[in-house]
Amino acid sequence: MTTYLPSEKDLKPVSKTRQLSWVKRKEKPFINAYAGGILLGIVLFLSFFLTGNGLGASGGMNRMVVFFQDAISPDYVDSNAYLATMAGGDLNPLDNWVVFVTVGTVMGGFLSGWWHGRIKLETNRGPRMSAKSRWLMAFIGGAIMGYGARLARGCTSGQALSGGAVLSVGSWAFMFAVFAGGYAVAYFVRRFWL
Amino acid sequence: MTPFPLDLAGLLGHWEQYGVYLLIGLSFGVVLEMAGFGISTRLAAQFYFRDHTVLKVMFGAIIVAMVLIFGATALGLLDYSMIWINPTYLIPGIVGGLIMGVGFIVGGFCPGTSLVAAATLKLDGIFFTLGAFFGIFMFGESVGLFEDFWSSTYMGRLTLPQLFGVDAGIIVVGVVIMALMMFFGAELLEQRFGNKDRKLAPKWRYGAGTTLFIMASAVLVVGQPTSDTKWSRIEAEKSPMLDNRAVMVSSPEVLDYIRNGSITLTLIDVRNEADFNTFHLENAQHVPLNQLLTHLPEWQVMTGNKAILLISNDETSAIEAWKMLVADNIPNIYILDSGMNGWIDKFHTQSDGIEIIEQAGADDQLHYTFPTNVGGAIMPLALPDPSSLDPFGSDMDYVNNRKIVLQSKKGGTGGGCG
Which of A169, B45, B114, B247 is a plausible cystine mate for B51, CB 3.0–4.6 Å? Predict the structure, then answer.
């Protein structure tokens, strides 16, 4: 069995995509968007039907962050009201369903990517972006997104998808705000993508 | 009882239940990956009108899940009151949403899709994930500075059917129609800006759209269960609590909580307006029976050391209200033992010189007349002095046998909020 270690060459900005030796499966196309929507809807329904909870991603990531904070400085976590609700005293921030949904999402993404031959070390970017600036923008965008998601008490999965399907008023307002924010700024950052 | 959602912790065990969540997450990741959500350029194209995969997958999923969920509740398979509805914090939600929209177009992902991108070794996805962890960390560090704003415009477990005061079926049909129209518009835009020929799109999507519309209409026709229907499902389990008076709280016990605050009681007076104006307990809220359900959004998210005490003249309307609230899975609902008549009977000597006359009356009528409408102002009757109670008599029975035992709400505990 060979294990994969990223070499200097792999980590360089890639202009061409490159398939790794241990995942030589034939690359298959993505499914139709409507078919994806129907499948995702069935997963979302089953989640509510079986467990009473919807889907989530940022909530699980949040608890992983708090887990490390608690491991490094439990006294500080106890003194911060927001963090203490998740990890104060004996509370284990990972003892929560959303953490397992999040871990499952990573596993599922990997399995499907492998099965369909789409595990590729690559940087997807607009034609006018260098890979390095794309990485920087991805980090900045991620930070903005992470901050906004906690402010809104959920991300696209936890608020828009889950709350949307069960007709929460706040989730619908949130959903339109996300699209509004994206469309409002899209023109000014078109160099990133077009 | 409605069979779903399942009590996973009870069925499988505390840590074992998370196996189900792992499988759900796994399916979520598989579907996101299959739909191409690991590719940032595909996601960002949404905002340049070229590729509406994001819109189609998201709204497609929402309407499919919504129709199935409300179909299941209409058929009595799923208890809507037990599933997690994101509580509404309107302004923080909108501001957070706008910020996320900016993050989306700058970074090219949302948190869930970035996990899938990272899992398939997209370097931009890995950097985005790291950024998201950093942003989440920064929020935890800074939320203390604007705690008030973060908790502002709170509306509880408010849903669109409640907001518009209509049956959920109408909203379900409306949302399906809106989504189908958006899909049509998205395809026209893709044809114009993305060089995608609509004729090449699969024909089955018309059939799928029609099927979904028919299913949504069926949800509307069947209708959501009424309070009566929901009560009849749990009657066998819950009515013993009424029969053996487990939820009737004596006035001395109620007074103890009001005076000592060990349990925060929300006093809900369900009598008619005339009786309420004549006399009511201090801080009692007037909520007649026909308006009871409009308070569900706030009561369904009640947590901590809080209970609701229902008050009528005797007990008949309070019992009716109790059934409605219990049928909607609201925890910690109690009834004032013997109602206002019992209260006045116990404490009428503390009427501050105002003459209260006892008279005969039918069940659940006020058996006392007051010279004027005193509302909650007559002191100390509206908040009596407990020293008038006999410390060695039956008034104190409650001390060793308290009726109010707080329980937490069953059912879903969180959306993406964790």
Answer: B45
pLDDT of A146 reads 95
A129 touches chain B (CB under 8 A): no
| Residue B221 contacts A where some CB pair is shorter than 8 Å | no
Q: How confident is the model at residue A18 (pLDDT cuts 50, 70, 90)?
A: low
Q: Nearest Cβ partner of B120 from A103, A118, A142?
A: A118
Contacts of A163 in chain B (CB under 8 A): 85-86, 415
B212, B68 contact by CB (below 8 A): no
**Tokens 């060990």 correspond to what residue?**
B262
Quote the minimal CA–CA distance from A46 to chain B in Å: 8
CB within 8 Å: B414 and A135: no
Token digits of residue B366: 């006020």
Task: Catalogue all structural domains in chain B, each as residue range(s) with its CATH number.
Answer: 8-226 (no CATH), 228-400 (3.40.250.10)
E strand or H helix at B264, and its extent?
strand B264-269
CB contact under 8 A, B24 and A50: yes
Rounded-to-integer distance, Cα B315 and Cα B326, Å: 16
- Please give, rounded to a whole number of angstroms, the shortest distance from the CA of B185 to a CA of chain A: 14
Q: Tell whether the model's pLDDT for residue B393 goes beyond 90.
A: no
pLDDT tens, residue by residue, B189-216: 999 998 888 888 999 999 999 999 999 9
Q: Residue B184: count other Cβ atoms within 10 Å of its Cβ.
A: 12
Average of per-residue pLDDT across B50-75: 96
* pLDDT at residue B418, as a whole number: 39
At A15 the pLDDT is 44
Helix (H, G, I), strand (E, B) or coil at B302: coil
User: Tens of pLDDT along B298-317?
Assistant: 888 777 678 999 999 999 99
**Nearest by CB to B86, which of A109, A156, A162?**
A162
Collapsed DSSP state (helix, strand, coil) of residue B411 = coil
User: What is the longest distance spanned by two Cα atoms in chain A?
Assistant: 53
B127 contacts A135? CB cut-off 8 A = yes
Query: Do B101 and A177 touch, CB atoms closer than 8 A?
Result: yes
Closest approach of A131 to chain B, Cα-based (Å): 8
Closest CA to A84 of B140, B38, B71, B17: B140
Q: Are A61 and A101 in contact (CB under 8 A)?
A: no
ipTM surpassing 0.85, yes or no? yes
